[in-house]
């Protein structure tokens, strides 16, 4: 009887060991596979144009572009100083000495730098896609895909997508979840420059593409930076 109990216990221990080993292998494969799958997905995304993501421009319910009289060229404030912008989101204005990293195109609420850092990027020809920080995750994922995709040649790769919080500035128009902004240079015969903003209700890579083609990276206060 004792020997039988010992044999049964040994078989039970063996089964338990096999289950643990099998589970460990499955978990290990999943850990290895996830980064590989992510790399493949990102590679496919980089081969797609931005206008393939989100809804069409006609379905995005975008407002007419707003032209703001620009100010603040080369007015660099110390990082941390409170800067109040007259429009929301800002399309020009005084900004911090430090700009957001030129190589980073997508930010979340966890890693986004202060708004005045991003305004410095506008001075160098960037277009910024601002999105409400309350946007559903599936739409934020679409924006992240846009940041990895093929940008129009006119952008020279100067693009940033970043969240915009209620505390960052005045309220946006009702129902608008996305905003584009760009800071243009002084055109020939023009005494002042303009910032440009456009609000949309839905994520639309096509609408973004059209905005960036209208306001290319070389149309900037300091186009050679970045």
Quick structural gist:
With 226 residues, the chain is of the alpha/beta class.
Explain how this protein is built.
Helix content is 34%, strand content 15%. The chain is an alpha/beta fold. It has one domain (50-214). The protein has a five-stranded mixed sheet with strand order 1-7-6-4-5. Strands 2-3 form a two-stranded parallel ribbon. Mean pLDDT is 87; it is low at 36-41.
Question: What topology emerges from the helices and strands here?
Answer:
Elements: H1 2-46, E1 66-69, E2 76-77, E3 95-96, H2 115-123, E4 127-132, H3 137-148, E5 159-164, E6 178-183, E7 194-200, H4 205-214
Parallel strand pairs: 2-3, 4-5
Antiparallel strand pairs: 1-7, 4-6, 6-7
**Helical proportion, percent range:** 25-40%
What is the ordering of alpha helices and beta strands?
A: HEEEHEHEEEH
Tally of alpha and pi helices: 4
The beta-strand count equals 7
Strand order in the sheet with the most strands: 1-7-6-4-5
Strand content: 5-15%
Give me the oligomer status: single chain
Number of domains: 1
